[in-house]
Amino acid sequence: MSPSVPLQEMIRAIRSARTQCEERGVIQRECAAIRAQFRQADNGGRSHNLAKLLYVHMLGYPAHFGQMECVRMIASPRYSEKRVGYLGAMMLLDEKQDASLLITNSIKNDLSNSNQYIQSLALCTLACMGSAEMCRDLAPEIDRLLRASNSYIKKKAALCAVHIVRKVHDLGELFTKAARSLLTEKNHGVVHGAVVLITELCERNSETLERFRKTVPDLVQIMKGLVISGYSPDHDVAGISDPFLQVRILRLLRILGRNNEGASDAMNDLLAQVATNTDSTKTVGNAVLYETVLTVLDIKSESGLRVLAVNILGRFLLNNDRNIRYIAMTSLQKIVGTDHNAVQRHRGTIVDCLKDQDASVKRRALDLSLALVSASNIRSMMKELLSFLSSCPPELRSQTASGIFNAAERYAPSQRWHIDTILHVLTTAGGDVRDETVPNLIQLITNTSELHCYTVHKLYRALLSDISQQPLVQVACWCIGEYGDLLLRGECQETEPVQVTEDDVLDVLETVLQSHMSFPSTRGFALTATMKLSTRITENVDRIRSIVSIYGSCIDVELQQRAVEYNALFKKYDHMRAAVLERMPVIEKNSQGHINGETIKESQTVKVKPGEPQQPANQVCDLLDLLGGSEQPLQPSPALGSTAPPMPVSTANTVGGDLLDLLGGLEPTPITPVATVTVYEKDGVTVTLSCEKQSDSGLTVTLTASNSTESDIRGFTLQAAVPKSVQLHMKAPSGDSLPARGAAKVTQMVVLNNPNKVNLKMRLRISYTSQGSAVQDTVQIDSFPGLGQ
Amino acid sequence: MLFTERHSRPAIRFILIQNRAGKTRLAKWYMQFDDDEKQKLIEEVHAVVTVRDAKHTNFVEFRNFKIIYRRYAGLYFCICVDVTDNNLAYLEGIHNFVEVLNEYFHNVCELDLVFNFYKVYTVVDEMFLAGEIRETSQTKVLKQLLMLQSLE
């Protein structure tokens, strides 16, 4: 049957319009005509007009003036008009429109109409756009239809009930009994509807879920019927009997069997049967198998069944159809944590999927590959991952890079391999790595002292070829600065040495300094490296001097500051230069908590300078950690002042020392303590504590140290940490050396303010140098004399 | 995963039939969207689906759900479902639907869908309801459609 003539004509007219403008003109004319028609009394062509309007709406033009017409048409007794009216209602009306309420009564009447097709129209519309109030009004009607009508209506009523339950959760109770009885029907459509309804009810309400667990045997029975039974022409799709129903039942079984032993046992056999008997040559069969696998993995199934499921996924991975490989990987990703070994068997195929052309398949393969890396397969996996990195789409690069780093860190078979891998990543994808890579790599390099020579040679070569990858350039500059002497020596065990002269090295660093591709931080690295080389090379120190003085007038403030300080180091403090620029000690990696991590990294990247501040920074961090990472601002003794200005510490010490000397005469006389307690006594070093209450919450603590050994002690420092709410202020100590045999003492005052009156505790760290070796110790003070605690 | 959160939405959010140029031949919505949201969704789906070819899978991750689509001649049939749904089952559902259209219109072509758009809606409503697959037997659906036709 062809559409009505007026409708056809209009469609043709619209399609023949050649431009957007023409089309708009045609549509405006038609709409005007339709509007005029609507205003007229009932005529035979009403349905055609509304149909025309709906077509216009489908093209994207506004059509809300037809809403009232829809309402009128729905109320008409003629089928053709009702039909178009309901279609219009579904397309033009939605919950937000007030007109939708007007059709509630019409729907109610139509639901009891003798003509089943009119009933079905009403059901359909209600299921499509029924608002919450409409649903509440009409729910009893639907329930009635669920029980007593023919199967055509029951099917639709079941899904309509699903919609109602979604809109108004409480009405679920109403439909429970009816849903249960529908399961026993023969008609597939009805059973399908019932299963969907039960699924919806169970997912909403856990009590209903408990009640429906009893239906598991029935469901198993139905499934068996579908799987074993012969050919059924109505519902057959490529040899499988009603796969859609099978899939839905499997899904319901999954929900019922989750976390429940009894139900899971009951369905074990069935699942095994479905898994083995279903034909997997076509997509249909695979759809059923896939749902089965999902169910098996989700319920408490026995291990044999799980192995079967993972094998099916493995078979999927080998399938030619890309779709199936994709969903197999999605599922494997979910179980890689729990069934790791089973998934490992398919590692080869997964790695092959890295080369697939579809980006989403690549991403899945990448996630899975990273999860499958282990100590035994690290070398081969890394080869694959590195080759993937060079060809992967840009959005996956940073993920791949960080995955590679994590894997390398956990399973690196040797240090050299680790360093090589990181260098490889930096050269291929340097722009996409995270910021903490640079300090991590530097720390790794300093830790492997036997490979310094090898590393610096490799980095030098990399720098010669390409200076655009910033992380790589930063690390290379740092290494050249530190180990430049190894580079110039020209001999190396691990790799073929390069013959470099001092000029070559300085050329490279200058190129980095001047290149427009270098970030400001990179140039900072390069400048510092140049400076460090002044102690490691012999001939071209003047060249370094001139470079440094040029940058003394650089526009970049950071570079300028550095250059000026280095200049000062050349001129006034030349005697200290060697000590300041000597080789750095091994940097400890502090892996406890972020606060520590941040501070260490700061002190590494910003202070790529005189080695001394490293020790105090470590100490500060460790103390922070001792108190459980409390954010209590710690006042390290002023003589250390490491995290503050970038001045070389020795200078600060000298300056501080001068100040102290100036104040020498004003040295505070040790207050005669009210009560003294010895808090530390070891190796001849004694520290005593006395305190005096200044106010209700304020307290002054005096620490006195003395040395009874035969040798002098130098660099004696005290650091203190207190609980969070207590404020601490350490005054300058009287000195930092303890002469032998108790000839003199060192005192330090600490002012505490305890407004919250918490239990006062203090942790004290004592460090000093005795007979050339550094000593560090910690002691905790829990009670303070004279406090009445 | 809270049950209620996941299931206040129907499994199928919407069904779209579009041609390569982006003209909508059918749009059935099972969830509440504003008109401008609908327009945006239509445009986005079109943009995502038309750039893919045979070397891509039939599934696209789209916002926080996914689209299962298949191309038949110049038309893209797209179903938008939840991320946890079974992709292959809905792919088969699309094919089922297309086969019914083919039978009903006797070797359907795009023009059939244009001139008989309201009939296409009838077919959709016979096979899908409330955002779920409703009737899967092709013979039954065709029988019903012929009955409905005779009423007009």
TrEMBL record, chain A:
One of its GO terms (biological process) is intracellular protein transport. It is a peripheral membrane protein. Keywords: Cytoplasmic vesicle, Golgi apparatus, Membrane, Protein transport, Transport. Residues 672-785 form the GAE domain. Its main location: membrane. SUPFAM superfamilies: ARM repeat, Clathrin adaptor appendage domain. InterPro entries: Adaptor_Complx_Large_Subunit (IPR050840), AP1_complex_gsu (IPR017107), ARM-like (IPR011989), ARM-type_fold (IPR016024), Clathrin/coatomer_adapt-like_N (IPR002553), Clathrin_a/b/g-adaptin_app_Ig (IPR008152), Clathrin_app_Ig-like_sf (IPR013041), GAE_dom (IPR008153). One of its GO terms (cellular component) is AP-1 adaptor complex. Belongs to the adaptor complexes large subunit family. This is AP-1 complex subunit gamma. It comes from Oreochromis niloticus (Nile tilapia). The lineage of its organism: Eukaryota, Metazoa, Chordata, Craniata, Vertebrata. The gene is AP1G2.
Automatic annotation (TrEMBL), chain B:
Pfam families: Clat_adaptor_s. GO terms for molecular function: clathrin adaptor activity. It comes from the Eukaryota. GO terms for biological process: clathrin-dependent endocytosis; intracellular protein transport. Keywords: Cell membrane, Coated pit, Endocytosis, Membrane, Protein transport, Transport. SUPFAM superfamilies: SNARE-like (SSF64356). It is a peripheral membrane protein. GO terms for cellular component: AP-2 adaptor complex. Residues 12-151 form the AP complex mu/sigma subunit domain. It is found in: Cell membrane; Membrane, Coated pit. InterPro entries: AP_complex_ssu (IPR016635), AP_mu_sigma_su (IPR022775), APS2 (IPR027156), Clathrin_sm-chain_CS (IPR000804), Longin-like_dom_sf (IPR011012). Belongs to the adaptor complexes small subunit family. Adaptor protein complex 2 (AP-2) is a heterotetramer composed of two large adaptins (alpha-type subunit AP2A1 or AP2A2 and beta-type subunit AP2B1), a medium adaptin (mu-type subunit AP2M1) and a small adaptin (sigma-type subunit AP2S1). Interacts with CCDC32; the interaction is direct and mediates association of CCDC32 with adaptor protein complex 2 (AP-2). This is AP complex subunit sigma. It comes from Oreochromis niloticus (Nile tilapia).
